[in-house]
Amino acid sequence: MELKELLTYLVNYEMDIAANPEITSIEMDSRKAGKGCLFICIEGLVFDGHDFAETAAKNGATAILSEKDLNVNVPVIKVRDSKKAMAIIADAFYGHPSQKLHLIGITGTNGKTTTSHLIEKVFSDSGKTTGMIGTIEMKIKDQSYKVANTTPDSLFLQNAFHKMIEEKVDTAVMEVSSHALVQGRVWGCDYDIAVFTNLTQDHLDYHKNMEEYQFAKSLLFSQLGNTYQKSTKKFAVLNNDDPASEMFKRITSAEVITYGIDNDCDIRATNITIGSQGTSFTLQTPKSKREINLKLMGKFSVYNVLASITTCLLSGIELDQIIKSLENVTGVSGRFEPVIEGQEFTVIVDYAHTPDSLENVLRTIKEFAKGSITAIIGCGGDRDKTKRPLMAGIAADLADRAIFTSDNPRTEDPLQILKDMEAGTDAKNYLTIPDRKEAIEYAVERAKADDVILIAGKGHETYQIIGKDVLDFDDRIVAREAIKAVKK
Ligand SMILES: CC(=O)N[C@H]1[C@@H](OP(=O)(O)OP(=O)(O)OC[C@H]2O[C@@H](n3ccc(=O)[nH]c3=O)[C@H](O)[C@@H]2O)O[C@H](CO)[C@@H](O)[C@@H]1O[C@H](C)C(=O)N[C@@H](C)C(=O)N[C@H](CCC(=O)O)C(=O)O
Ligand SMILES: Nc1ncnc2c1ncn2[C@@H]1O[C@H](COP(=O)(O)OP(=O)(O)OP(=O)(O)O)[C@@H](O)[C@H]1O
Ligand SMILES: N[C@H](CCC[C@H](N)C(=O)O)C(=O)O
Ligand SMILES: [Mg+2]
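# 2,6-diaminopimelic acid complex -> structure
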């Protein structure tokens, strides 16, 4: 594509040399920049991409998009915000692929991965060809691809949509993280439906306070229907039990459809019963009232199911089909996932890594546990420090015994993270075992019949990040081995 054509999509830019080279690829990483590419300089948290402009030019880049003046021998396009410019250009370069998809974006602190999987299941069961992008993986039909972020950068994302179109995907569902919204990774994405799950504390290392965090989430709803869009109707699917929805209602130009349990709304669940094998409730839509029996556990799962039902109904899928699919879902990898090895106690691996999700999961376990409850938790390093004491306090309050251990310490001292956690409770019912494997083994060795062990925080993760090392670690495998060892 000619550079000139790409630039027609940018509203504000300056160019130092009048030139119109053919652009054969777009790159944001100098290590990938080669002949014919447009290299985009991104100022990151670790590196400044502008420092690599010269290398990119030497490697054959035909033009460079930058926020700064540069001294290079190829044309430089100067913009105010290169991340957002990159998103707009990537969308154009790949032929506006999101406009050709029925695209659903899900944001919120908790429940994005779960809700995307539920929605994808309903769509694929009803004969749609689907794509999915989120924390666990990117999926195009049955093919799974690794992802580095919950919401990838705009180059990866637009390329992924392009691949989906080539593979004849008609419906794509994706998680939209607050980081992605602030960094403009999803600019140019033509969402048809934007879904909000909930807003509770997380990521305050990045967003600084809850107002900024809410503002980040709100961008999905303010952007809905605002870029070069296909002319379909846009919907904002909002959780009416979460106070943040009021702001999202005010700022979106899309039609608002609400779901919830406690407050009046369009799609509502009442009479919720939480059992040891699943959850049932009465579903009320403007047109019908139905009894639903889920294999999923907890009130929080009802919210995810309501968000999914609302989204699928708005997408034109019959209620009977939606219910049939959702009633069959047994779970999502690493979310309230039982580890069953013939033992007489219950072991659950869950991805709760925020105060709210930990509380929800422990309250759900309390609804059915007959024996005592042990919660094994840690908190990630290089992440929101203020959630550490809160999570520790919740674990000590709601479980009979808590074991504080390491999550992904990353570049922080694991013992300091544990101290930050311990500051959150005066209780005497916890102990600290820094090594996660030892913590799991300790709990399993002492479990009696009917007890429940919750291993929280890492869910589907198959690694543990200590320092810069990414080591093999899977809570489910470690728990399984520990159970087998006590049964010998
Ligand atoms: C804080 C944050 O969001 N960081 C993201 C950011 O990285 P960064 O700002 O550190 O970038 P950088 O490494 O400094 O590089 C800057 C630029 O220099 C370039 N570079 C660098 C080196 C070189 O030799 N040559 C070169 O050109 C890089 O390609 C890049 O363009 O841009 C990268 C590319 O898009 C992201 O992968 C990275 O996510 C990191 C891995 C991360 O941990 N992010 C987390 C906090 C995150 O985004 N999480 C959210 C949500 C989590 C949730 O679901 O709750 C997510 O969407 O994943
Ligand atoms: N609707 C919900 N409300 C509160 N907690 C939830 C909800 N759904 C799931 N959870 C809890 O949050 C954990 C993470 O769920 P999930 O992975 O679906 O969220 P996410 O928003 O994708 O998280 P992330 O931001 O890390 O990608 C689950 O393991 C469960 O403990
Ligand atoms: N998307 C979340 C995942 C946290 C998972 C937890 N295991 C951790 O490493 O803190 C984050 O990057 O903050
Ligand atoms: Mg997720």
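# post-check
The mean pLDDT is 96.
Residues 36 and 61 are 5 Å apart (CA to CA).
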